[in-house]
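Entry
Fold in token form

___
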Amino acid sequence: MEQMPFIKMHGLGNDFVVLDGRQAPIQLSADQAAAVADRRRGTGCDQVIVLQPPKNTIADFHARFLNADGGESMACGNGTRCVAAMVMDETAKNHLIVETGAGLLDAERQANGLVSVDMGPAKLDWREIPLTDPVDTLHVPAGSGPLDDAVCVGLGNPHAVYFVDDAEAVQIKVFGPVIEQHKMFPQFTNVEVVHVTDAGALRMRVWERGAGVTQACGSGACATLVAAVRRGLIDGRKADVIVDGGTLTVEWLPDNHVLLTGPVATSFTGTIDPAMLRQGTAGAALAKDVARAV
């Protein structure tokens, strides 16, 4: 196995290692993905994204998302925006269709340099999210400590959104992993804690399924906006969502699709030594950065 090139990208600190398998196939096991994502022994990231040729001929490429623990995610809002921007730069296009496990997602470059992605329809039925029991998804009895009465939304991934007086005060590292694996969520769940700011924005902190606390979560921001609209906590169907890494803008469109907009950035490029992939996490220290770019 030869050295494997990668690109390190992020959307507001939600960071990704991008591997390009469009020309030569790349197959990563869960252990190998976790080795790459390891922040001490590997390259370090919230998710590994593998680009592949699309199965659907109308799509420009397929994106496979692997969480930091090696588990697969069907969609990732910030990750989709990052890899769409990368391919837009390659092709001089301003609009792309990205094939994901959650379906085809439209991505578009905005005039101000931001990148938008249509995350598809918000899933509000308990069977689609999915939940284990037939409950009202606007008031789901699943929580831990001060977090209860969740609003649950499916956006490629399941999300449990909790509205609180002060999101900063919640010990999300304590309660997030407990809720992630609550019996109500057969596929586990992302956990968002949110309060509405005086300016009408949504302050969100997130515990991501399979990744832990992250600086931003695109699908989580989308779920948060949908949950706030359903609870009647904001005016209209569009708002800024303030995450640890910055601000995303989310709009719940009349056709039930959710539009996510924000910045993207490339941190650096490098190569992964194949010994890391052979040895798993124990060999991840062999990841080597070979070039840096803004």
Q: What stands out?
A: The longest strand covers residues 4-11. The chain has two domains: 4-114+264-292, 121-255. The helical segments are 30-37, 77-91, 172-180, 218-231, 274-279. The chain has five helices and 18 strands.
